[in-house]
Design a protein that fits this description.
The protein has eight helices and twelve strands. With 230 residues, the chain is of the alpha/beta class. The strands form three sheets. Strands 2-1-3-4-5 form a five-stranded parallel beta sheet, with helices on both faces. It has a four-stranded antiparallel beta sheet with strand order 6-7-8-9, with no helix packed on it.
């Protein structure tokens, strides 16, 4: 059973969210005080998802998120009455995976939870072949083949690694910094612009209209989000 930690000080809302998550088959632990959540940040690795209210008494959700990120990469979904673009960017920049403004539709919350939790399971499964638009990507041969024409090209190891990273995080905003840390490590040569150039290449290859992408989306001031059509 997947475990979720809900950090929300509005008890009526917390009860409503907890009840509906439990009906979906999740185990839910509720924390209503910011200080308690901050002090337990090192324990959050045990959960499959953290749902975190931004405006908590005592210690803000932003501060708690920063503390959790010292110990874990567990997915974090922010809930907040502040829904401006600047607020969302601030949350994503410090390590949140998604941001849902209040008031929200309960069904949308459940869908976002499902995407974030199932993303963990996807990361554990080896990828071999996936389809993006009209192209099939073979992660074992580094080959991308157009499904209609049969024309194929070879990608570099780095391009395949980046595609795999995006595919394992479908629907999740990934910052340029996270990409550089995960794929380049301590290499000092790459910059955020390096990632932008890779995305431009992906758009030219996979998108029908690179200026209006369906798959590789820019999230201003943060990074990118990869999505697939149903």
């Amino acid at each position: 059973m997947k475990k979720i930690c809900l950090i929300e000080d509005e008890e009526s809302l917390a009860d409503l969210i907890r009840m509906n998550l439990e009906l979906e088959g999740y185990r839910v632990d509720v924390i209503t005080h910011g200080t308690e959540a901050f002090l337990r940040a090192f324990e959050m690795e045990q959960f499959d998802l953290i749902i975190l209210d931004v405006m908590l008494p005592e210690v803000s959700g932003l501060t708690i998120c920063k503390e959790i990120r010292k110990y874990s990469r567990v997915p974090i979904l922010f809930l907040s009455a502040k829904g401006t673009t600047q607020d969302r960017i601030a949350g994503l920049k410090i390590g949140a995976n998604d941001y849902l403004p209040k008031p929200f539709d309960l069904e949308e919350l459940l869908l976002r939870v499902q995407v974030l939790v199932e993303g963990i399971e996807e990361n554990t499964a080896p990828l071999e072949k996936v389809v993006i638009g009209n192209h099939q990507v073979d992660f074992t041969t580094f080959e991308v083949k157009h499904l209609n024409t049969g024309v194929s090209i070879d990608l570099s190891k780095r391009e395949i690694e980046l595609l795999k990273m995006f595919y394992n995080r479908i629907g999740v905003v990934v910052s340029r910094e996270d990409i550089l840390d995960e794929l380049w490590g301590n290499d000092q040569f790459p910059t955020a612009r390096t990632i932008d150039n890779y995305i431009l290449s992906f758009r030219k290859l996979f998108e029908e209209d690179p200026k209006n992408p369906k798959f590789f989306h820019s999230i201003r001031g943060v990074g990118y989000k990869f999505t697939l059509e149903n």
